[in-house]
Amino acid sequence: MSDTGASLVIGFPGELARRTSAELARRGQAVLLLVRPAIEAEAATFAATIANRPRLVFGDLDHIDLGLPGSEYVALARELKSIVLAELPAAPRPEEKAPSGRDAIRELLELARFAPALAHVIVLSHVDVAGDFPGRFAERDLDLGQRFHDQSQRERYLAERVCRRFNSELPLTVVRGGWVVGPVPELVPLVALVLAAGNDLARYASRRLTLAGIDGLSRLISALVDHPPEHGGRVLHAADPALLQVDELELRIRAAARNIAPGSFDLQAGARRLLQRATGNGQWSLREFFQLLPVARIETAWTERFIADRGLSTVALDPRETDQWIEHAIEEIVGLR
């Protein structure tokens, strides 16, 4: 890919957009960061922390032409070499209306079609587009007659269908992540869910978790910018489906808690307080989390070959990284951070 042009990162203020922007800048890429005008100060503060500072573009993917005047939209399109949509699935909030992923994807793809030098479009999706499909879910699969637990899952599925219509005319990569974990409070508070579950945890003990580490996912997405598909679109499964069972995760959590939490500290009550803060309503239970997880066996064979053949970073969590985010979460619960 040519070194000229810039990469537009969409998803700020989310943590994946932050880390992807920083990683692209570290790699010497010119980075544009799409930012809603209402959070200009937060974005400017973040950009100032990066040596190769991203340039802020004030707009919104939910608006036609990103809400930009025509001349600005044309100028933006002309300088793009890649577009990265890096928005994470969030904790469910029953009182909120699910956004239309299709509308946002259409605006993104319209910009991509208008960009004359564009070499790659990367769209973050989620393995939950498998819905209730009970079999093996490979990278090439999508339309399997599945049903969905909530509207957000269905919108991600429909957004992928929109993407597929443009595979023949755009260099498009869909990255299906697992639930993203890491030492950042706004990510999925899985440690708190396990600690808050109490006796209910036993019913989920043998379930496997389809997870992706925030650092590995941002490294993969950043590296993909320079690896556009040669013919048509492609799909990658950026999840580690065999990393942990719930009972193994609980053992790691309990071991870490013995070293961090005071003996008199009520971890279950603390975990519930953290969940209330993270979700805004305190109603997100382990049962609801597993309802959102796909029941399919997530296949990663094609993705692993693709990554190995190109020398890219894997998204698998190693035990040290797992222990780090567990320890950080327990410190959050105890109140040390």
Write a structural description.
Strand 8, helix 6 and strand 9 form a beta-alpha-beta unit. Helix 4 runs parallel beside helix 5, helix 6 packs across helix 9 and helix 8 packs across helix 12. It is built from 12 helices and 11 strands. The protein has a domain of 229 residues: Rossmann fold (3-Layer(aba) Sandwich), CATH 3.40.50.720. 41% of the residues lie in helices and 15% in strands. Strands 3-2-1-4-5-7-10 form a 7-stranded parallel β-sheet, with helices on both faces. It is an alpha/beta fold.
Quick structural gist:
With 337 residues, this protein is of the alpha/beta class. 41% of the residues lie in helices and 15% in strands. The chain has a domain at 6-181 and 211-240 and 295-317: Rossmann fold.
* DSSP E strands, number: 11
- Strand content of the residues, in percent? 5-15%
The averaged pLDDT comes out at 87
CATH superfamily of one domain: NAD(P)-binding Rossmann-like Domain
Strand order of the largest sheet: 3-2-1-4-5-7-10
Report the radius of gyration as a whole number of Å. Answer: 20 Å
CATH topology of one domain: Rossmann fold
Sequence stretches where pLDDT stays below 50 over 5 or more residues: 91-99
Please bin the fraction of helical residues: 40-55%
Shape, principal axes of CA atoms: globular
Features:
single chain; 337 residues; alpha/beta; Rossmann fold; 7-stranded parallel sheet; two-stranded parallel ribbon; 12 helices
